Amino acid sequence: MTTLASGTTASDSVKDGLTRDALTVLQPGFPGTTAPDWLLRRLGEGLASVGLFGRNIASLEQLSSLTAQLRSERDDVLVAIDEEGGDVTRLEARTGSSFPGNHALGAVDDVDLTRAVAHELGRRLAECGVNLNWAPSADVNSNPSNPVIGVRSFGADPELVARHTAAYVTGLQSAGVAACTKHFPGHGDTAVDSHHALPRIDAEPTVLEQRELLPFRAAIAAGTRAVMSAHILVPTLDPDHPATLSLRVLTDLLRGRLGYDGLIVTDGMEMQAIAATYGIERGSVLAIAAGADAICVGGGLADDETVRRLRDALVGAVRSGELPEERLAEAAERVRGLAQWTASGAAAASEPAPASAGGVTRVDVGLVAARRALTVTGTDDFTPLTEAPYVALLTPVANIAVGDETPWGVGAELVRLLPGTETGGFAGEDVGDDVLNAAGARRIVVVVRDEHRHPWMAATLDTLLAARPDTVVVEMGVPQAPPRGALHIATHGAARVCGQAAAEVVAGA
């Protein structure tokens, strides 16, 4: 057996390289607002990425300290975050986002504005030490009943989604933050949330080409540094495997036909579409074998045991011959390549900073975009409120991507504009009378989210408008239902700035 100068054997070196590669392809999460010892140890052993969630962020200053702590162990670590702006925010999970989400930007349909918003969001992430963003969503929201995409999509028109996806990628990466365009090959035409089960898209190849794939082609042309796979079954592409685990989807289609050569990241492996059908260990092995380069895990499983299990599953698969060692090495090399791109400063210099949109400064670009995104119906006969109203928040069950920790609505902003405003939350059947009793003689502002998907919301509005025709309706989801009420405001998303923009209309500010 060959002995190396360091005293280790060649087989030891191979073993260490294999273990490092297995760690390198993982993107785990962790608990708390400081890095635990086990995570720092794994960074020293070869882990190259970490994922951040709302639980890891208390303030921008704390986040900067956390990323500095991570880089003290590994200076080129990829620090990833799920920061779409709009409804899905980790940076401002406790307050609501300063940026409207994709649906609002699509409603405005100004690619310069989208680019400016993405650049400013990226600048704030980079300032805090985050260099990989699991965004934007390039899904075409062609199914109005979609429970997980909705306002996370730029819209239902593939060409609109394509041009705004490209603008978002360009803006984000001009700030030095790698974009991760998702959810390939497109999660828009689903009626099932892949956090809970495996969705299926029964679309013909020509439809997929003209609808789902168009935005991803645009993202690739714009230079997206990463693409995230979807846990969805598309039988016309692969009748047996969800996209994340499909050689036909990730290697033949994404790498081959679309010519993409960047990092492929999986969606969260603990999502039930994978965890309940394959298990996270086998799912991770199959994903790397299919062409994925990085395994995202940590939204629900955020401990060292998970990292160890996935590392050992990958190493074991190589040793058993199930996973080619060169495929794992190739995946690890792509991770290191992206880490080098972000660490070298090439990222910030790769694209010029976008020009301001219509003279908007970087400080107020989010609020300006939210104001422009409003669709207001009924203004001819509406007089802005001058007395404190009662705000009824009709609250659906939040999907896991959005979470239930982020506040939404218009109540907080109306309190500022009309002191004395009160807000009550309502959910379920037959709550219309409860709202009327709580409001008393006060003017009612009712806030809904995807009225068209929730019959109980529509029924509640029927009750309120029959009894109080002067009720103001604010729709903060996809405005699919016909507008109604004395005034109807569609915000195209529930970000904090969307609520502020709507409150300004209600109060005439």
Please write out the topology.
Blueprint: H1 10-24, E1 26-27, H2 37-45, E2 49-52, H3 60-73, E3 78-81, H4 102-108, H5 111-127, E4 132-133, H6 158-173, E5 178-184, H7 205-210, H8 213-221, E6 226-229, H9 247-257, E7 263-265, H10 272-275, H11 280-290, E8 295-296, H12 304-320, H13 325-344, H14 346-349, H15 365-373, E9 375-377, E10 390-394, H16 411-417, E11 422-426, H17 432-439, E12 444-448, H18 455-467, E13 472-475, E14 487-490, H19 496-507
Task: Provide the gyration radius in Å.
Answer: 24 Å
Number of helical regions: 19
Number of strands: 14
**Percent of residues in helices:** 40-55%
Distance, first to last CA: 79 Å
- Major β-sheet profile: 6 strands, parallel
Structural commentary:
By secondary structure, the chain is α/β, with parallel strands linked by helices. It is 41% helix and 11% strand. The protein has helices at residues 10-24, 37-45, 60-73, 102-108, 111-127, 158-173, 205-210, 213-221, 247-257, 272-275, 280-290, 304-320, 325-344, 346-349, 365-373, 411-417, 432-439, 455-467, 496-507; strands at 26-27, 49-52, 78-81, 132-133, 178-184, 226-229, 263-265, 295-296, 375-377, 390-394, 422-426, 444-448, 472-475, 487-490. It has a 6-stranded parallel beta sheet. A 6-stranded mixed beta sheet has the order 9-14-13-12-10-11, sandwiched between helices. Strands 1-8 form a two-stranded parallel sheet. Helix 5 (111-127) runs parallel beside helix 6 (158-173). The chain is globular, with a radius of gyration of 24 Å. 56% of the residues are buried.
